[in-house]
Task: inverse folding
């Protein structure tokens, strides 16, 4: 097989070895529309020819902002990269102020947007962007140029030799993309990733992911502007996997049933929601069906891989899979045999439960700056261990610093932060990238993440508290949707909690608890507070006295990306949450 050294080599590799009819598939007006490997590259080359005719030079920047994953994004991606320009993807949900900062800082000459909402944000700040020449949209929008104008401009292939010459001059060390991190504090940082960074990560990760080459379907819904989903889509192309784009996060369950995918990437929050729905349905069963359901749940919570629980457990599990767990699999399309989880810590309980249900979730770990994968589990060859993020992938060296910080070195480490050599020097020393995460490598070589270095805090008594450990334990409660542990410099840890409003309403109905009609009434309901206190008390038993959450307050709003409490990858924006709920924080510690 020819060596793949640049990102646009992946679709050519797919075309040569698999040439599938469903390389990229998007739903338009209720119909799934397939783009074949041939059509994908024909259109990407038309885009490249058009961009050259528009005067695009090597190292020019083109921004792409899409509210959903779709075929056009990938055609633009390859079209841009082949001209030696850089694709600057932007999160659609960030503020206009951040749009302006990124478009200005990157010096984007053109901007491609998906829809009316994104266009409105760009229009609002257009006057402050003197370098931005024009805006094109994927959807048909009155008064906005459409991306199909480029396909038309590039239809004449007389300048294809010029495109080929540009491609031939691009080396693996050249800059491919700038991805602005959604940092929880300060201005976004532009992470510069070369072709080599991402290609090395794809080829290092592919050995851990079992695909049936040329015969699998993937469902893609995590933001394509994030390097995690983007790297995985190159991996799909390498293996000839058909990529089907979910319409939205709300329509995932419907789309999964239609597409019947074999693989998808997930984040822990999605798995938590899937499990909560399954569990809620189980509680509504009666008689023998209910007993069987909870017998299967009990088995799932005790799952250990590779037959470690012995033959009797495995025999019972085989029965549970036939009677109970097969229905879970059917609800997810019937073919799903691999989910890859990233972006945040996965509760070990969920890893066990889904593996028991024959819906294995392999947890991985990485950052934008590492392209992104550092380590990932693999169900084969005893490379899977619950509670860890797996072993480091090929070509990535991991070591633990004296203070417990995870350091990584390899061809996947970013070129640096765009226009910011000082910040780059702060995080890369002797070729090692400082991840900001605390972890350990166990005797078998599995990497375990324990907390964010910056998030660990010290109480006034001098004791260190790792908030993520406490938060992950508390989120196992069905009453708790989101939680942030606080207490820096205070005498004890406490928590700000966003209740699971839907579940609490249902619980209140079943237990005749009044005053749970809306989020405000739920957050102030004494019976709800007492019930959540019981959940906290149970969780506290697992922790040392200095770590126990002594007090908490419930917040009346749903924490969300638009609300500013969560990053686009669903991590907590701790500073913003603290500012927003300063009065609740003060209430906790003034009465403590």
Result:
């Amino acid at each position: 097989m020819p060596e793949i050294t640049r990102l646009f080599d992946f679709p050519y590799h797919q075309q040569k070895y698999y040439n599938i009819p469903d390389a990229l598939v998007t739903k338009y007006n209720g119909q799934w529309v397939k783009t074949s490997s041939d059509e994908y590259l024909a259109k990407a080359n038309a885009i490249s020819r058009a961009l050259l005719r528009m005067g695009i030079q090597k190292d020019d920047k083109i921004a792409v902002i899409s509210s959903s994953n779709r075929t056009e994004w990938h055609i633009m991606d390859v079209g841009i990269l082949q001209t030696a320009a850089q694709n600057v993807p932007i999160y659609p949900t960030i503020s206009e102020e951040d749009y302006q900062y990124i478009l200005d800082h990157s010096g984007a000459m053109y901007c491609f947007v998906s829809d009316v909402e994104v266009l409105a944000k760009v229009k609002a700040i257009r006057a402050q962007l003197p370098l931005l020449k024009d805006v094109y949209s994927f959807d048909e929008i009155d008064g906005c140029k459409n991306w199909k104008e480029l396909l038309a401009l590039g239809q004449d292939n007389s300048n294809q030799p010029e495109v080929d010459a540009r491609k031939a001059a691009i080396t693996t060390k050249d800059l491919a993309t700038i991805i602005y991190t959604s940092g929880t504090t300060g201005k976004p940082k532009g992470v510069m990733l070369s072709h080599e960074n991402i290609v090395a990560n794809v080829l290092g990760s592919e050995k851990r992911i079992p695909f049936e080459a040329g015969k699998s379907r993937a469902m893609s819904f995590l933001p394509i502007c994030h390097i995690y989903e983007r790297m995985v889509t190159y991996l799909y192309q390498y293996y000839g996997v058909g990529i089907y784009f979910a319409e939205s996060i709300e329509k995932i369950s419907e789309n999964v049933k239609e597409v019947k995918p074999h693989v998808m990437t997930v984040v822990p929050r999605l798995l938590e929601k899937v499990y909560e729905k399954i569990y809620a349905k189980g509680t509504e069963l009666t008689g023998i069906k209910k007993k069987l359901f909870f017998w299967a749940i009990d088995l799932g919570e005790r799952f250990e891989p590779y037959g470690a629980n012995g033959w009797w457990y495995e025999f019972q599990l085989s029965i549970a899979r036939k009677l109970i767990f097969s229905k879970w699999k059917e609800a997810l399309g019937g073919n799903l045999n691999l989910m890859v989880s990233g972006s945040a810590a996965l509760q070990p309980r969920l890893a066990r439960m889904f593996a028991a249900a024959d819906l294995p979730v392999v947890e991985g770990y990485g950052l934008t700056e590492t392209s992104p994968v550092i380590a990932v589990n693999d169900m084969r060859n005893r490379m899977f261990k619950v509670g860890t993020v797996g072993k480091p992938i090929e070509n990535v060296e991991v070591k633990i610093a004296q203070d417990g910080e995870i350091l990584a070195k390899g061809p996947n480490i970013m070129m640096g932060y765009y226009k910011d050599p000082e910040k780059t020097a702060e995080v890369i020393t002797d070729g090692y990238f400082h991840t900001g995460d605390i972890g350990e490598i166990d005797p078998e070589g599995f990497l375990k993440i324990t907390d964010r270095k910056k998030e660990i805090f010290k109480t006034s008594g001098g004791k260190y508290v790792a908030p993520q450990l406490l938060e992950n334990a508390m989120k196992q409660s069905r009453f708790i949707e989101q939680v942030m542990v606080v207490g820096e410099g205070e005498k004890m840890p406490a928590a700000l909690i966003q209740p699971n409003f839907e579940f609490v309403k249902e619980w209140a109905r079943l237990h005749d608890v009044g005053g749970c009609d809306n989020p405000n009434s739920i957050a102030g309901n004494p019976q709800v507070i007492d019930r959540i206190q019981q959940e906290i008390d149970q969780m506290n038993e697992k922790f040392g006295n200095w770590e126990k959450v002594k007090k908490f307050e419930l917040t009346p709003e749903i924490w969300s990306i638009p609300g500013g409490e969560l990053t686009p990858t669903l991590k907590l924006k701790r500073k913003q949450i603290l500012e927003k709920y300063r009065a609740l924080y003060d209430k906790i510690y003034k009465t403590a």
Summary: Residues 9-264 form a domain with the Rossmann fold fold (CATH 3.40.50.12780). The CA atoms of residues 189 and 420 lie 8 Å apart. The chain has 21 helices and 27 strands. The chain has a mean pLDDT of 93.
